[in-house]
UniProtKB/TrEMBL annotation:
<keyword id="KW-0456">Lyase</keyword>
<protein>
    <submittedName>
        <fullName>(3R)-hydroxymyristoyl-[acyl-carrier-protein] dehydratase</fullName>
        <ecNumber>4.2.1.-</ecNumber>
    </submittedName>
</protein>
<dbReference type="InterPro" id="IPR029069">
    <property type="entry name" value="HotDog_dom_sf"/>
</dbReference>
<dbReference type="GO" id="GO:0016829">
    <property type="term" value="F:lyase activity"/>
</dbReference>
Length: 72
């Protein structure tokens, strides 16, 4: 949803795809019933591509960090 919101050139119903995942580091695994918190920040937008950085945490414990690119 965030990608669709940021890519102002997209028409309604036009899909977005993961294009790349970079600098991904996994520290622990989430378990069934955990409440996963995703903190995602926009790094850059160029034409139909958007790069984000994100951190996944459970109860304040960092599980994963990564940069990812989405394209239309």
């Amino acid at each position: 949803m965030l990608v669709h919101h940021r890519l102002t050139l997209l028409e309604a119903g036009q899909p977005c795809y993961f294009a790349a995942i970079r600098r991904a580091h996994f520290y622990a695994a989430a378990r069934a019933g955990d409440r996963l918190h995703l903190d995602v920040r926009l790094l850059r937008q160029r034409r139909n591509m958007v790069r984000f950085s994100g951190v996944a945490t459970v109860a304040g414990k960092r599980l994963c960090v990564a940069e990812f690119t989405c394209a239309s």
